[in-house]
Amino acid sequence: MGTNELFSIAAHHAARFRDAASNRPHRPLHDYADAVEAFSAPLPEQSSPMEDVLDKLVTAAEPGLHLMTGSRFFGWVIGGSHPMGVAADFLASAWGQNAGNHLVSPSAAAVEAVATRWLLQLLGLPSSCSIGFVTGATVANFTCLAAARGAILMQAGWDVDAKGLFGASPITVLIGDDAHTTVFSALQFLGLGHDRVVRIQTDDQGRIVPAAFGRAIADVSGPCIAILQAGQINTGAFDDFGSLIASAKSKGAWVHVDGAFGLWAQASARRRYLASGVDQADSWATDGHKWLQTPYDCGYAIVRDELAHRRAMTISASYLPLATEGERDPSHYVPELSRRARGFATWAMIRHLGRSGIEAMVDGACDVAAGMAQALAKEAGVAIENDVLLNQVIVRFGADLVQERGDELTRRTIGTLQREGAAFAGGAVWRGRQVMRLSVINYQTNAGEAATAVDAILRAYRAERPDNVSP
Ligand SMILES: Cc1ncc(COP(=O)(O)O)c(C=O)c1O
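^ thats the input. predicted complex w/ pyridoxal-5'-phosphate below
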């Protein structure tokens, strides 16, 4: 079989999967054990024709796929892998570019340079920032914090990239109590420790309490990194960047913002106020595979001080004159040397949607989230637990019952919704209480899809809550 035919079959399977989405439940049909069974076979001793392998791959994989691209999928925070981004990413794979170096693949490097300019404009960040195209916000946080670590220790007269942490001045890390778990992982990877941090008190939405931050920063002497957040994973809340960044800067701290999805509020004239002052930070982590709808995997490590970014990541030695090196090598901004050419999908998504399309998508998701919250709150015993200002909604069922019964009812409602499959939402524990989480971030989720999902959620709730239930 020729390449053309093989690629056409793969494209056909991909399109069939996406087109059939509305007839498929929003849950995998196979569990993990079934999926292992479906792929299992003795180690192949002989080759097999490519079309047979493709066929077997599709047959084994499809039942265990989750409809994460679906219009009524509200789990975690997951973008919709827009067909435009998928098509560009197919090409990135087919072109097989190692995107590490501009001489080796001028196009893979150039598309990142142009997408960098576009991203900075969309996100309202200084045009001189550098961006590393990484796998997601986890590695973006890691990359930005590596730049932070290097820069603040350099100011203290220590080259951590050359000498390591042994013998360096201790770094104080200030972080909100409701920061995303992956930021703690990034600190762990960097030798800064996930527990060796000053956790700052947060309010009912997960925002850092400015007075508590002020007290913590007052105690700082020496190198300091302050980590803030744009978009709390459950509530979607933003830290008060204006006051916190000014306070952190008064002590010379590097301010990093985890904005995996929330930073995209900057793309909307109506929502930008939520992130007011965020552009004053030193580094920002965000995702393409969330609100920009690129396929997995795609994130952006954005750093104000390009030299600090390059010094932390560059594969060549840290004593080389980085600023005069000339053309942009993608590998200078990310941990890896060899990697896929993520810039093509980013460029294609921005080119396709344009600034106005991205703004409409962000606003659309936020409006849908607000509408879902309103509709759910009308039902007796249902409480919305967060201020729905962005795209996240957290819901408690049986809010009129004693807590254990409400928690149990919420868990059962989530379970029934997931089994029925008309929509998917997961759970979390927020302030000690079980909640259902709704993350509205798929480009296809409009008011009609949301209404169908609300019906499914209320159907699950009513089925789990017999009328005679006592408080
Ligand atoms: C606030 C926040 N930070 C970091 C992450 C990690 O992002 P990723 O899974 O893309 O690495 C997430 C993921 O949902 C997030 O919501």
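The longest helix spans residues 343-377.
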